């Protein structure tokens, strides 16, 4: 196969958002990341594992160009000190451990500094996806079905059948291929829609290529590592530590807070007046979106904050039908936006993969996510998950 990752910009924007703050405040932190395939009927052959390894090795040979660094520096909250760091930074193949000892036939683990390993997640998942679909299926037929479905989506946006408000493409990690994601972003950006606005993409490479807005702030790893990777921290206060560090780095810029790392109810204990005012909005990534949105609107109301000035960003397993229903429900009550992933980057006649790569340890300490939807977490230690849940339960029961 030809190289599947062509640029170190070919990752989600939030990797740079978090990366800059990690560089400035948490550069000594070390993390372990683990790959998991949630599909029970998927198997990666030895030939696929060999190709995935070869593609990751190629990814590790890439370097930022000066043109790419200039582009990053043009983003108003990216600082020159971080750009200078990226000028000498590159992925290390030595940080990867790739094997076959799993039911799906593929294991991938990365170990090293958080600065390094955080940057491996998205390209690794994109590589695994594309290798699987090119080697397991008739790729030209898949691309044809993808193009046909994309055309139908765009037609319904143009006709006004779908009304989404603002939406972005978030599908890099689970895309059918680089070619497919490029086609989706290019096609969506070429049209105007009566009731929807295509804002941009989380893929920084494609945002640069098509002069779109790169979109993304923080991921679960930010809250997990800062809140749980320091043994002095009570993990039930993970959100406070993470929000405090974020505002220290960015002030009022780049402010969409992720709510569900250790449940939204626990998040709201820390998302009080100062943070709720400083952050421009919040992101939904698990649980019922309508119930979550109502909970957030009620929270803003209790704090005396006009929710119409805040953004509710939805990003959990969305398609245009779901997004339209959510937009209709909240329209006029808040700014509503959507990050839509697999539905835009890997909608074909074949079911997509459900693969993830998650932080499982930070500074030698187990870390975990306990989201609002059961089964979305991933941790190697059940004992630690029980400990984290007990910490959360104690805090919530004591109204702290």
Mean pLDDT: 97
Stretches with pLDDT under 50, minimum 5 residues: none
How many helical elements? 17
The arrangement of helices and strands along the chain is: HEHHHEEHHHEHEHEHHEHHEHEHEHEEH
Query: How would a crystallographer describe the biggest sheet?
Result: 7 strands, parallel
Cross-sheet strand order for the largest sheet: 6-5-4-10-9-8-7
**Termini Cα gap:** 55 Å
Shape descriptor: globular
Which percent bin holds the helix content?
40-55%
Kindly provide the radius of gyration, computed on alpha-carbon positions and rounded to a whole number of angstroms.
Answer: 20 Å
Given the helix and strand composition, which structural class is it?
Answer: alpha/beta
Number of strands: 12
Report the β-strand fraction as a percent range: 5-15%
Fold and architecture overview:
- This protein is of the alpha/beta class.
- The protein contains 17 helices and twelve strands.
- The chain has a seven-stranded parallel sheet with strand order 6-5-4-10-9-8-7. Strands 2-3-1-11-12 form a five-stranded antiparallel sheet.
- Strand 11 and strand 12 (365-366) form a beta hairpin.
- Helix 2 runs antiparallel to helix 6 (121-136).
- It starts with 12 loop residues before the first helix and ends with a helix.
- The mean pLDDT is 97.
Task: Annotate the secondary structure layout.
Layout: H1 13-25, E1 30-37, H2 46-59, H3 66-74, H4 80-88, E2 96-99, E3 107-113, H5 114-117, H6 121-136, H7 139-159, E4 165-169, H8 178-189, E5 196-201, H9 204-209, E6 213-214, H10 220-228, H11 238-250, E7 256-258, H12 264-270, H13 273-278, E8 281-284, H14 289-302, E9 311-314, H15 320-330, E10 335-340, H16 342-345, E11 355-362, E12 365-366, H17 382-397
Parallel strand pairs: 4-5, 4-10, 5-6, 7-8, 8-9, 9-10
Antiparallel strand pairs: 1-3, 1-11, 2-3, 11-12
Helix pairs in contact: 2-6, 3-4, 7-8, 10-11
């Amino acid at each position: 196969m030809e190289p599947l990752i062509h640029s170190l910009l070919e990752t989600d924007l939030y990797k740079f958002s978090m990366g800059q703050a990690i560089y400035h405040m948490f550069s000594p932190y070390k993390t372990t990341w683990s790959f998991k395939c949630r599909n029970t009927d998927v198997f990666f052959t030895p030939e696929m594992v060999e190709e995935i390894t070869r593609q990751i090795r190629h990814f590790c040979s890439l370097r930022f160009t000066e043109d790419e660094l200039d582009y990053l520096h043009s983003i108003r909250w990216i600082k020159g000190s971080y750009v200078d760091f990226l000028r000498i930074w590159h992925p290390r193949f030595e940080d990867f451990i790739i094997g076959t000892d799993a039911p799906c036939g593929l294991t991938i683990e990365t170990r090293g500094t958080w600065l390094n390993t955080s940057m491996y997640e998205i390209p690794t998942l994109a590589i695994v996806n594309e290798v699987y679909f090119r080697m397991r299926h008739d790729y030209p037929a898949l691309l044809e079905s993808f193009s046909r479905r994309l055309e139908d989506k765009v037609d319904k946006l143009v006709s006004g059948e779908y009304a989404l408000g603002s939406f972005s493409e978030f599908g890099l990690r689970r895309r059918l291929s680089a070619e497919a994601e490029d086609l989706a972003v290019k096609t969506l950006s070429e049209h105007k829609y009566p009731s929807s606005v295509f804002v941009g993409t989380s893929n920084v490479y494609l945002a640069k290529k098509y002069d779109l807005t790169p979109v993304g702030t923080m991921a679960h790893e930010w809250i997990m590592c800062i809140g749980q990777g320091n043994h002095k921290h009570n993990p039930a206060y993970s959100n406070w530590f993470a929000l405090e560090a974020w505002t220290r780095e960015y002030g009022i810029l780049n402010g969409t807070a992720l709510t569900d790392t250790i449940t939204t109810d626990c998040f709201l204990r820390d998302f009080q007046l100062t943070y709720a005012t400083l952050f421009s909005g919040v992101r939904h990534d698990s649980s019922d979106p309508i119930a979550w949105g109502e909970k957030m609107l009620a929270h803003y109301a209790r704090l005396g904050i006009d929710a119409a000035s805040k953004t509710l960003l939805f990003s959990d397993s969305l398609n245009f039908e779901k997004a339209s229903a959510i937009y209709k429900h909240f329209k006029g009550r808040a700014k509503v936006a959507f990050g839509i992933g697999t539905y835009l980057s890997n909608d074909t006649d074949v079911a997509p993969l459900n693969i993830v790569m998650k932080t499982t340890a930070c500074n030698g300490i187990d870390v975990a996510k306990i989201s609002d939807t059961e089964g979305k977490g991933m941790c190697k230690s059940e004992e630690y998950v029980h400990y984290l849940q007990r910490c959360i339960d104690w805090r919530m029961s004591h109204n702290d």
